[in-house]
Amino acid sequence: MLYTQDRTQQRQFLANAWQKFLDKKVLDPLEDQLTQVIEMHPEYHKLINDVESEYFPEQGEVNPFLHINLHLSLREQLSINQPTGINEYYQKILNKVQDPHEVEHKMMDCIAQMIFSSQKNNQPMDHQAYIECLKSVSK
Q1: Is the dihedral of CA 64, 69, 72, 74 positive or negative?
Q2: From CA 51, how far away is CA 43, in angstroms rounded?
Q3: Global pTM?
């Protein structure tokens, strides 16, 4: 698994995994997870190779690399049920919307809010606010 603070290296890892998938090469487990997410987002297929692009959310742009990584973060949380109870929130939302991909997007919005607030306020991530957001979405 690739862990780095270097944005270009992270993006290149995603681009390489996608190319391996397209070339029908054997993927390691992380590459397989990444390509599953990329595959669900055809709007990113051509963008994924442009590792130097800038994206400006304040102008309505979605950063495909961030989006893919939010999917992976959520899936990791679900796989270990951390924070505790996250699987129950997932199931409640799934019962409402009936679409696993849409459920992930709703939950990822909560993760993104937590990250944005942390960065904006220069404070640690507020995990309780994250849980409260999940509760709100699952009602």
Answers
A1: negative
A2: 15
A3: 0.90
